[in-house]
Design brief:
The complex is a heterodimer of chains A (260) and B (379).
Chain A: E1 2-6, E2 9-11, E3 17-18, E4 25-26, E5 32-34, H1 36-51, E6 55-61, H2 67-76, E7 80-84, H3 94-108, E8 112-116, H4 127-135, E9 139-149, E10 152-159, E11 162-169, E12 172-176, H5 188-193, E13 200-203, H6 205-208, H7 243-256
Parallel strand pairs in A: 1-6, 1-8, 6-7, 7-13, 8-12, 9-12
Antiparallel strand pairs in A: 2-5, 3-4, 9-10, 10-11
Chain B: H1 7-24, H2 28-34, H3 39-48, H4 66-79, H5 81-101, H6 104-115, E1 121-124, E2 140-144, E3 147-158, E4 165-171, E5 181-187, E6 193-198, E7 209-220, E8 224-225, H7 231-267, E9 269-270, E10 273-274, H8 279-307, H9 313-338, H10 340-343, H11 349-358, H12 366-378
Parallel strand pairs in B: 1-4
Antiparallel strand pairs in B: 2-3, 3-7, 4-5, 5-8, 6-7, 9-10
Classes of the chains: A alpha/beta (260), B alpha+beta (379).
């Protein structure tokens, strides 16, 4: 079995501060990490590999420094790492990003594609399912359990108030939540081997041969019109009371604010 | 200090930080309080490959180096000096000499399981009457056919009871003095080999420190490490390397105490402001941070020298001498900046101060380090 895991290198948003005048993220000095949902995806793939035979391929699209994230994937246990990187890909929205990744995945021809549910910097949750659309593959999102059963995966798809058990035939795409597992530590031996020359394959558009009009900003049907920081809300207060009292509290509060 | 670190060292440190944060930190005060050996942590260290960092892959190791190994001792010791010394004794004092002096058969039989972390190692030199004067070995090994029969006892042996493999020094010919000492590899199950009294200690209370008792222990000649009569030399060389590990432990303790203190002085308010706003606090912290960095430089230089097959005896002695003094000073001042809370077991700096003291004593006291260093000046 061949498993592709899509990983994105993101700024550690726990460290990110916002520039008060411009409203944008201060990226300087912020460490880069593997997106947490993607790390769950890699661990899920490695667990499938531990039980059944599988080749795990970590795939990332990004600037050349995303190489660091892929070395971490190798140190955790990935067999191959591919970085899809080209200046022409810059400025891509989710459609153009997923298109490039889909083209790369087509060349690899895997049985399973695992992506994280969403990235902590963009938070769109679109790229995973879009890849499946480009490739005309079935996809299941928001998964927190994967079981393999003869050409099928039985997965638990989470909702806010429950879950669905879904049986999906390979090849397919699954997006996972970081809660799916506790990722393993990088293995010391693999860390020492992860920096060998040529270990991370770099693919640019000369490998993928994608039409220019589908690349980067030009290939992106959406544009960010404006980004801004939401005003800080004051902390809420929890009233742990019975429904009747709760209604009274709400009515009182609304009256206090002259809404009622 | 990023000087001299390669990319793999930086990635290794990232893993070790995560490991320490998730697996070691929360257990530190518990194993101290209960004087309990952290067997569950050793198992997790084995799974991550931390137990055999500097040994080649063909001997079950991780194919890393001494810089990587001492950074593991350092990171673990930031949160728990006990866990740091378990690793240090295992790696530098037991697997280390078997790698350096062992035959291929001995490496196959003993080093591979040690480096893989399937077995734990210990080293036994100190005796009730042979401390700093380690040449006064009273443990005797008498030749008997294809074996030696060992009688005597050792004290203060780190990892004792939990270790499977022991590198043990014994006198094979008392008339030859230090040249009559031989190193043997012992297994915990050998008949006549028992673990004696467990020490109740001031610090590193989770680590097992016990007496070893040898009562007619029959050890095959195949288990002689190096050659007959080379034991003292092997012990001294082994301790040279071990001292870099203890220097790393001392650095880790000091760094951990400084981190705790920096966080505390920003939170703690007196006279209507955080105590970090007082110049006394700032100056003390600045001094401590500078000394810690100096200690780390000495420690990593010694490790670098060892990795690059340069002389490191004096460098290791300097690193241990200075780093252990820094650990004692930093933990002491960390408590002072914490005030009454620092003296309470509610805060980890109290444990760190108790843990720091041992680094001035074991694997050669500070006075021994000064003897080693001055011998290079006065030769």
């Amino acid at each position: 079995m061949k498993i592709v895991v899509c990983v994105k290198q993101v700024p550690n948003t726990a460290d990110v501060r916002i520039d008060q005048t411009t409203g944008t993220m201060i990226r300087e000095g912020v460490e880069s990490i593997i997106n947490p949902d993607d790390l769950g995806g890699l661990e899920a793939a490695l667990r499938i590999k531990d039980q059944h035979k599988a080749e795990v391929i970590a795939l990332s699209m990004g600037p050349l420094q995303a190489d660091g994230a892929l070395r971490e994937c190798l140190a955790m246990g990935a067999d191959r790492a591919i970085l899809v990187s080209d200046r022409a890909f810059a400025g891509a929205d989710t459609w153009a990003t997923s298109y490039v990744l889909a083209k790369a995945i087509e060349k690899i021809d895997p049985d399973l594609i695992i992506a994280g549910r969403q990235a902590i910097d963009g938070d769109t949750a679109q790229v995973g399912p879009q890849i499946a659309e480009h490739l005309h593959l079935p996809s299941v999102a928001y998964v927190n359990q994967i079981k393999y059963d003869k050409q099928h995966f039985i997965v638990k798809r989470m909702f806010e108030d429950g879950y669905q058990k879904v049986k999906v035939k390979t090849p397919c795409l699954i997006t996972v939540l970081k809660e799916i597992n506790q990722p393993r530590y990088m293995r010391v031996q693999r860390i020492y081997n992860a920096f060998r020359e040529g270990l991370v394959e770099v693919w640019d558009n000369s490998n993928l041969k994608i039409e220019q009009e589908n690349l980067g900003l030009k290939g992106s049907p959406t544009r960010v019109k404006k980004s801004y920081t939401k005003g800080v809300k004051t902390a809420g207060k929890v009233f742990d009371v019975n429904p009747k009292e709760a209604v009274q509290i709400i009515v009182d509060k609304l009256k206090e604010s002259y809404i009622l | 200090m990023e000087l001299g670190f390669d990319k793999e060292h930086i990635l290794l440190r990232q893993m070790l930080k995560e490991f320490t944060e998730n697996e070691v930190k929360d257990l530190a005060s518990e194993i101290d309080e209960e004087e309990r050996f952290p067997l569950e942590t050793v198992k997790k260290m084995q799974e991550a490959g931390i137990m055999g960092i500097p040994f080649p892959e063909k001997y079950g190791g991780e194919g890393g180096d001494y810089i990587g190994y001492v950074s593991a001792v350092e990171e673990l010791s930031k949160a728990c000096a006990t866990t740091g010394v378990v690793l240090s004794a295992h790696t530098s004092l037991c697997a280390g000499p078997i790698y350096e002096y062992g035959t291929e058969e001995q490496k196959e039989k003993y080093l591979i399981p040690l480096a893989k972390g399937h077995k734990l190692g210990a080293f036994a030199l100190t005796e009730p009457n042979a401390g700093t004067d380690a040449s006064k070995q009273e443990t005797i090994a008498i030749e008997d056919g294809d074996d030696y029969i060992i009688n005597g006892s050792k004290i203060f042996i780190t990892n004792a009871g939990y270790a499977d493999t022991y590198v043990v020094m014994a006198m094979t010919d008392p008339s030859l003095g230090t040249r009559g000492i031989t190193a043997f590899i012992l297994e915990k199950d050998m008949t006549g080999f028992t673990i004696g009294k467990k020490e109740k200690k001031m610090g590193i209370r989770g680590s097992a420190t016990c007496e070893l008792i040898f009562d007619d222990v029959r050890v095959p000649k195949a288990n002689i490490l190096g050659k007959v009569g080379y034991g003292f030399k092997i012990a001294m060389k082994t301790l040279d390397a071990g001292r870099i590990g203890i220097a790393a432990q001392a650095c880790g303790i000091a760094e951990g105490a400084l981190e705790e203190t920096v966080a505390y002085v920003k939170e703690r308010k007196q006279f209507n402001r955080p105590i970090a706003k007082f110049q006394n606090t700032q100056f003390v912290l600045a001094d401590l941070a500078t000394k810690i960095d100096a200690a780390r430089m000495l420690m990593y230089r010694a490790a670098y020298n060892k990795d690059h097959k340069l002389s490191f005896t004096k460098e290791a002695a300097m690193a241990k001498l200075y780093a252990s003094e820094v650990a004692v000073e930093v933990t002491n001042k960390a408590i002072q900046l914490h005030g009454g809370y620092g003296y309470s077991r509610e805060y980890p700096v109290e444990r760190m101060m108790r843990d720091a003291k041992i680094t001035e004593i074991y694997e050669g006291t500070s006075e021994v380090q000064k003897m080693v260093i001055s011998s290079y000046l006065l030769k």
